[in-house]
Amino acid sequence: MIQGTRRATRNRTIPSRGAQKPATDCVITLADFTSPNIVLTFATPVSLSGIPQFKTNTNKLPVSAQRTGPNTVSLVYDTPGAVTSITVSERDGAIRNASGGYVPAGTFPTV
């Protein structure tokens, strides 16, 4: 019997299965304000789940939301006032795209 014999091993890398692609953002190309609605147009198709918490410069939050097309969402505000911009919070999950991306946080002007 041979003593001190070790079994040879080698480091293996396990290929990742179904590696996820990084999510791309849902870029707002237009925020059109016509009281009491703001229609958001996106560069890519989006999905809507719930009501986004996008605050206006008049400190109002939407009371309802509806997806009106593959890349458009209409937000309805109660007495919004003179809206000149909306503020999107970090990682609001109400609007997403097919790759799982969020609307980027920031302040966007309305027209």
Give an overview of the whole structure.
It contains no helices and 9 strands. The protein is elongated and about 85 Å long. It has a 4-stranded antiparallel beta sheet with strand order 1-2-6-5, with no helix packed on it. It has a 3-stranded antiparallel beta sheet with strand order 4-7-9, with no helix packed on it. With 111 residues, the protein is an all-beta fold. The chain has a single domain (28-109), classed as Sandwich (Immunoglobulin-like). It starts with 27 loop residues before the first strand and ends with a strand. The model has no long low-confidence stretch (mean pLDDT 88).
Instruction: Give the CA-CA distance, first to last residue.
Output: 86 Å
Unreliable spans: none
Class from helix and strand fractions:
mainly beta
- CATH architecture annotation: Sandwich
Residues in helix, %: under 10%
Number of domains: 1
- Averaged pLDDT: 88
Instruction: Tell me the strand order in the biggest sheet.
Output: 1-2-6-5
SS strand fraction: 35-45%
Q: What's the gyration radius in Å?
A: 23 Å
In total, how many beta strands? Answer: 9
Largest sheet: 4 strands, antiparallel
Structure summary:
This protein is mostly beta strands and 111 residues long. The protein has a single domain (28-109), classed as Immunoglobulin-like.
